[in-house]
Write a structure and sequence with these properties.
Keywords: Aminoacyl-tRNA synthetase, ATP-binding, Cytoplasm, Ligase, Magnesium, Metal-binding, Nucleotide-binding, Protein biosynthesis. By secondary structure, the protein is α+β, with helices and mostly antiparallel strands. The protein contains twelve helices and 16 strands. An eight-stranded mixed beta sheet has the order 6-10-11-16-15-14-13-12. α5 packs across α7. It binds aspartyl-adenosine-5'-monophosphate (AMO). The site of aspartyl-adenosine-5'-monophosphate (AMO) has 23 residues, from β11, β15 and β16.
Length: about 425
């Protein structure tokens, strides 16, 4: 018996080849003398054509009591056919039912009707059987692969840091508490403190692509309580520009490499454009001026809210830029670990993509005393962060980096409208299962 082949590999096999395929029965059509079973295996389709005459009758009877979406295995011969969906059909001499599906299905696979998003998430395993939904995760995987491959070229080391932690780095409001053998602990909001500690280790350039947890109370299309944070940190930088250059190069190369994959794998898809480089660097102050010329007056010291970000996004898009940096935010609205510039501003930045924040980062305060001062100015107790501060007392190089919302980037890249479309099993205030 031949080994199991995938539908896409069968497509190029010559007439008469003997093959075994396995997949879900998407459609059953019985035309009296002849029956068609459309089998989907995750790579494409194979039409199995059985005539009721001779041995075909046994095959039809073996498949007579299965419902759509049951899993079958079919062994037979390839026959070229203009009429079949993939240009060929399989004429079987043996079939096995491997797993029967119940009826009715909780949601359709091939139906044109739109299913409610909650129903789709409740039945994600079926939702992903739809080619366009499964494609999101194939593309996401390719994107991550390309990202890792460029980071490796740039001598970054992939690391994993703890997700059960004793202190948060991004403010108390979104911390999830955990009972850790009777002690107070939290789920990590970001790897911030650990990636910075590693800057004193000689690994020099590290990155991590891992879950981060935030008790997000607001229900938006950009936030979930568990997301994948793509963090990087680099030692021995000369200034913020070194960090911006690496992130810009990484984005441009990853977008471009993923475009190649998309054109090959999904020829009919609209491939998202590679953002134009160099990404403009707009200072926070320039952004306030841009907004004021649009009739929106923000006070110096206010953070840019979602509407302000969108307005800037529209202006930049008109200029031909989808990605750009907003830099030098007021020190007062950035976390304690960001280095102050001296004029009330800070060496901080956000990476924006079509008016939505994808990443934030900056040059870090690596001088122990100043770091302690900054913590105190933010009403944090340095004593609680001793494990972190210690790394700044025995030789800490200047460093900087970023944290990028990976799911958010994929959702924006594929124009999905809701971050949850790019997360297999999203976690938010109302969702804890599946
Ligand atoms: P920040 O808090 O801005 O920075 O987070 C970094 C990026 O993570 C994404 N993000 C989220 N994505 C989905 N759901 C959420 N609830 C959510 N919260 C944040 C965003 C955001 O830009 N330690 C710093 C980074 C650094 O300075 O290196 C940090 O965590 O895309």
């Amino acid at each position: 018996m031949p080994a199991i082949s995938t539908s896409d590999s069968v497509a190029s096999m010559p007439e008469g080849s003997e093959v075994r395929i396995s997949g879900w029965v998407e459609e059953i059509r019985d035309l009296g003398g002849i029956s068609f079973y459309l089998v989907r295996d995750g790579y494409g389709y194979v039409q199995v054509t059985v005539s009721r005459k001779g041995a075909g009758a046994d095959i039809i009877s073996a498949l007579s009591d299965i419902q759509r979406e049951s899993v079958i295995e079919v062994t037979g011969k390839v026959r070229r056919s203009e009429k079949a969906r993939m240009g060929f059909e399989l004429v079987p001499y043996d079939v096995k039912v491997l797993s029967k599906a119940d009826a009715p299905l909780p949601m359709g696979v091939s139906d044109r009707v739109e299913t409610e998003f909650d129903t789709r998430l409740d039945n994600r395993f079926i939702d992903l059987r739809k080619q366009e939904n499964g494609a999101v995760y194939r593309i996401r995987s390719e994107f991550a692969y390309q990202l890792r491959s460029f980071l490796r070229e740039m001598r970054f080391v992939e690391v994993s840091t703890p997700k059960i932690v004793s202190e948060g780095a991004e403010g108390g409001a979104t911390l999830f508490r955990v009972d850790y053998f009777g002690r107070k602990a939290f789920l990590a909001q970001s790897p911030q403190l650990y990636k910075q500690i590693l800057m004193a280790s000689g690994l020099n350039r590290v990155y991590e692509i891992s879950p981060a947890y935030r008790a997000e109370l607001s229900d938006t299309v950009r936030h979930t309580s568990e997301f994948i944070s793509f963090d990087a940190e680099m030692a021995f930088i000369d200034g913020l520009e070194d960090v911006l250059n690496v992130l810009e190069g990484l984005m441009a190369r990853t977008f471009s490499a993923t475009s190649g994959f998309l054109r090959e794998t999904y020829p009919s898809m609209n491939v998202p454009p590679v953002p134009r480089t160099p990404f403009p660097r707009l200072s926070y102050t320039e952004c306030l001026d841009m907004l004021s010329s649009e009739g929106r007056d923000l006070r110096e010291g206010d953070d840019l809210d979602t509407d302000a970000e969108k307005a800037i996004g529209r202006i930049m898009k008109e200029k031909g830029y989808e990605m750009y940096f907003i830099t030098m935010y007021p020190a007062s609205i950035k976390p304690f670990y960001i280095m102050e510039k001296g004029d009330g501003m800070s060496f901080s930045f956000d990476l924006e993509y079509n008016g939505v924040e994808m990443a934030s980062g900056g040059q870090r305060e690596h001088r122990h005393e100043r770091l302690v001062e900054r913590m105190k100015s933010k009403n944090l107790r340095p004593g609680d962060f001793e494990f972190y501060l210690k790394a700044f007392r025995y030789g800490m190089p200047p460093h900087g980096g970023w944290g990028l919302g990976f799911d958010r980037l994929i959702a924006s890249y594929l124009r999905l409208g809701n971050i949850r479309e790019a997360i297999l099993f999203p976690r938010d205030r109302s969702r804890l299962s599946p």
